Please model this.
Amino acid sequence: MVPRLACSLAIVAAVTLVCTRVFAVNATTAGFVYLVGILWLATAWGLLEALLASAASMLCFNFFFLPPVGYFTISDPQNWVALFTFLATALVASHLSDRAKKQALEARARQRETEQLYALSRAILLSDFNRSIGFQAAQHIAQIFECGGVALYDAQSGETFYGGPANLPDVKAKLKQVALQGASLQDAGSDLLVAAVTLGGQPIGGLALQGITASDGALQALLNLVAIALERVRTQEAASRAEVARQSEEFKSTLLDAIAHEFKTPLTSIKAASTSILADPATLSPQLRELTTIIDEETDRLSLLVTEAVRMSQIDAGKVRLERQPLETPELLQRVLEHFEPRMEGRSLRLHIAERLPPIFADPELVSLALRQILENALKYSPPTSPIDLTAEAGEGRVTIRVRDHGPGIPERDRERVFDKFYRRDTAGDRVPGSGLGLYIAREIIRAHGGDLWVEDAAGSGSEFHVTVPVPEASTV
Model:
């Protein structure tokens, strides 16, 4: 910095010498020459050097070109105007030139980041399945982003893949920490960034980068691409399991799981692209920003649907592991209803919740999935103008949730069969879309919690589904 400041003063001195001794130009010409030198300094070096040159040029302009020459005084008031006009012009021009330089540097940096992200996405998509995809991804990141060291942690397999020339001691514990908490760690001393890799809002691993220089938007897009790489590992493993489990009951579940993961790969690519575009909203028109936001939100929704398909396949294969925790029934029902808000289209959904309901002890994701299947069934089989009633009450050591529609109802002979896999009533097969798995999955989830699900005729018209979930003994009144 100091040498450049000294060079700035030297340039002003050189301009003064040329204008006074070599060509003996007038004050106007000298002022323009000073301005050209200041603009060059602002463009080449920066604002600080240009400001110093502006102050020095003003003093030289006053001393050598404004009468009385040779003194730091001005006899003609008009020359005061000329002097301050020169100073203001020099300062404004320096600022504008410096800002233009910074904008050009930022544009080049964004272009470089875009090229790096494209190169990484292409490398991941062209990865060799005969080698470890995680290891290849770590190597590609280190090479493309010029990192000193890279460590990629896959939470599902517990493996850590390394790339780059530098060793990263004790990084595995940090990777497990961010994968568990979904947060990020920054170690300024070692220039190390450790961030969580998420997919569908859930942490699936961690990424450690040493010596990387990238914007927040580029880092987020990089993490999304890493999620693609980890998802490809899962896809590869799912495909292998499908080959081993062929011609068995488990094969159907494994195949659905592999297909769902294949959907996740392009969904994550779309999410990475929309996140990267929205990272710089100032460059987008309002219409393009709105359309990109819709893409981003609908990608999250479709990703949730694919995740539910994977969960259903696990239930069907008997691989369900309940992660129970205390749940407040009103909050649980509210989360379930939020899923249906965009699809209600003016339909009334009446909620009746008894006071002082005891908490239930259940897996929040699975119970929510079961309730969504029941509500989905009620919406599909009832008139679009009819309301849906959702009631929750407690009694006899359990919480009972009832979902009532105003559809055609279910004959008594079919009330048990509707919970069979792939069963669909003849009257609904052609006009109502579905696979015949929803109620089967819902009942299996509820029964896995020690509860039950059945259907009765509603008073008047329609059907009423009853869901019972036991409460912990300590909560029983």
About this structure: The mean pLDDT is 79. The longest strand covers residues 202-210. The longest helix spans residues 77-125.
